Amino acid sequence: MCLAIPGQVVGIVDEDKRLARVSVTGVQRTVNIALLDGSIPPVAPGDWVLVHVGFAMSRIDEADAMATLALLQELGSEYELEIEEFKASSIQ
Amino acid sequence: MKFVDEFRDAALGEKLSAEIASIVEPGRHYKIMEVCGGHTHTIYRYGIDDLLPANVELVHGPGCPVCVIPMGRVDDGVAIARHADVILTCFGDMMRVPGGNGSFLDAKAAGADIRMVYSPLDALRIAREHPDRQVVFFAIGFETTAPSTALTVLRARAEGIRNFTVMCNHVTILPPLRALLESPDLRLDGFIGPGHVCTVVGARPFEFIATQYHKPVAVSGFEPLDFLQSVYMVLKQLADGRCEVENQYTRVVPYDGNLQALKLLSQVFELRPHFEWRGLGFISQSALQLAPEFREYDAEIRFAVPGIRVADPKACQCGEVLKGVIKPWECKVFGTACTPEHPIGTCMVSSEGACAAYYNFGRVARERVVV
Ligand code: SF4
Question: Predicted ipTM?
């Protein structure tokens, strides 16, 4: 749970509940973006974010996202476990 | 992989390594504590120690949230899970943490309904799906994770969900650091600040380490080069006779943190007067509980929680490891009685724990990414 994985925002699914669709290495799940409320400009499709326990915790640039992904992939089984847990998530 | 190269430039790694070697005083021994378990992991994974002069020692700090959960809290969680109508939910890392009377995994095998979730919002979804059951989320984590729990509680309230509660074990990063700085058995020269926690709290709260205790701090990212650069920043401050809080991870960490997240923390939580940390004992105002306004979401209030206290097992030296007094391999049971499959202590459970990180990477020839 300590990992923060980079994902790319695909679209906002619920403005009210602050939920967005985020793609992490091709796997799309719903993530809460309320922690980035107040960031300028507001979170939009195409943005890269660090996802931690179902919440986008910070915005990052693409280079950082790619590097972080590469770093995580080198972790092997642990990263796979995190992705499995992410896949099992279904936030509403 | 163009992007990755920026962070893995071998020439840059060598240059940093050489610069570090050039600014340390040969006769002096430096102890630098990396606070965050993620950094401990980076160090072992990439063999960072090998890039540092022999007189620069990296000391692992108490920044792994799984590692600091005392056994009594696990037992309290099991006591809640034993209620027939309860579904206890927790992060996967918590399942194997030993309590005085077994782990969550053991309790599950014995029939308790304990489920792993990726997010507290998944726990809330389970509560929505099972209105006839009581769903409890066993919350752990530093300030990185606590805002997520706060938002989940607010969501539960907004939707009028009444069968959801939180057993709150959120801890705060600064009090244990202050405790370590006050402790006479540990002389530290500087700190590598925890990048992810700082995305929430910012770098500013670490200023007391520089102003009151006169130790340099560098808040660091998690790439091997990030970490090496942060070590350089701390050593450079020492060489220049400065002590400040520097932010190596500016691309993610704002100096003042995430104001939205901080607002949520102060709205939903209050400080506990005391909280027990595995191996470190009770530390004042070092953990969070739900604020009075949110008591109906507090599992410790809804269920009569026994408040169990269990002394750490005799063989276990996690406390010394968490304080950086001994290295993982110096623990008597390391790798023999205590392994990731059968942990005695918490530092062996989470991959961020110093013992697990060393067990996984330290004993094999380490693949070098930064050369
Ligand atoms: S080897 Fe096991 S018991 Fe010893 S300090 Fe590490 S986790 Fe604790």
Answer: 0.92
